[in-house]
From TrEMBL:
Topology in membrane: Multi-pass membrane protein
Similarity-based family: Belongs to the binding-protein-dependent transport system permease family.
ABC transmembrane type-1 domain ranges (all copies): 71-262
GO CC terms of this entry: plasma membrane
Natural source organism: Cohnella herbarum
Annotated Pfam families: BPD_transp_1
Gene3D superfamilies per the UniProt record, alphabetical: MetI-like
Localization, UniProt: Cell membrane
Matches recorded under InterPro entries: MetI-like, MetI-like_sf
Top-level taxon in the UniProt lineage: Bacteria
Alphabetic keyword roster: Cell membrane, Membrane, Transmembrane, Transmembrane helix, Transport
Name under which the protein is recorded: Carbohydrate ABC transporter permease
Lineage: Bacteria, Bacillati, Bacillota, Bacilli, Bacillales
């Protein structure tokens, strides 16, 4: 009786998870199939499978919108933001986790409290600041905004991870005469690698999908990101849905590939942070 009820519960859980997976994957498959249709075929049969494999929408995106430059811009901005965020967050997380200094808990709570403030409230002050120092329509504005906005959550996750580091290991490397930067590079950073990779993946995907920040701070076409360019396609070719869906599909593939490739690091990093 108990075995039958257990199987029933597992079956219900499987059905619920399968429904969630189908609902999550449906937009991706819809974009993939719709992007391979001519406009007329899409208008006649928007839900049906494509009659023939039609790749001209991707060719049009490549020639009209310089996809290589758009992807290059996005990768450059995300990479610089990731480096800037980690350069500040890793030492800060180590300080909150292992060093003792006055007002440590107060600083930590104040920093974590900033995560509860809606990001939209910073738009006008940040734009006025960037405009005042002349960083609007420059990649520095997007890199700084992305990196700074991700520091609290990055420090929060890495602090939880570093609190689980054995103090004996840190004391041993100090007794061997290692300096601060040597301890960070040889011990702290390697032991924090799963958490660093995990939080970097989350930050990178958020930045890649961010439309608002580059749309506000970058006005020149040669500086735009993929996400902003897709929005431009929507405005210029509002009736060409297969072309638009082709752009959306290409813009969504890199974050999906990152999750698939680094899913092992994500699971490991989240488990380490959870059990301290």
């Amino acid at each position: 009786m108990k075995t039958a009820s257990t199987k029933m519960i597992r079956l219900l859980i499987f059905i619920v998870l399968a429904l969630i997976a189908i609902m999550s994957m449906y937009p991706l498959f819809y974009m993939a199939f719709s992007s391979m249709k001519p406009t007329i075929e899409y208008i006649k049969h928007p839900i049906a499978l494509p009659e023939t494999w039609y790749f001209d929408n991707f060719k049009a995106l490549f020639y009209r919108f310089s996809l290589v430059r758009l992807f290059g811009n996005t990768v450059l901005y995300v990479g610089l933001s990731m480096v800037a965020c980690l350069v500040v967050s890793v030492p800060a997380a180590y300080a909150f986790a292992k060093l003792k200094f006055r007002f440590r808990n107060g600083f930590y709570v104040a920093m974590i409290a900033t995560m509860t403030i809606p990001g939209v409230t910073f738009i006008i002050p940040n734009y006025l600041l960037m405009s005042r120092i002349g960083w609007t329509d420059h990649i520095v504005s997007v890199v700084v905004i992305w990196a700074v906005s991700a520091i609290p959550s990055t420090v929060f996750l890495l602090t939880s991870l570093m609190r689980g580091m054995p103090d004996e290991v840190l004391e041993a490397i100090k007794m061997d005469g290692a300096k601060y930067h040597q301890a960070m590079i040889k011990v702290v950073l390697p032991m924090s690698l799963p958490g660093v990779v995990t939080v970097s993946i989350f930050n990178a995907t958020n930045w890649w999908n961010d439309l608002l920040t580059p749309l506000i701070y970058l006005q020149s076409d040669h500086l735009k990101t993929v996400t902003v360019a897709v929005a431009t396609v929507l405005n210029r070719f509002s009736s060409d849905y297969p072309l638009l869906l082709s752009g959306l599909l290409l813009a969504s593939l890199p974050p999906i590939a990152i999750y698939i490739i680094f899913q092992g690091f994500i699971r490991k990093g989240l488990v380490i942070g959870a059990v301290k």
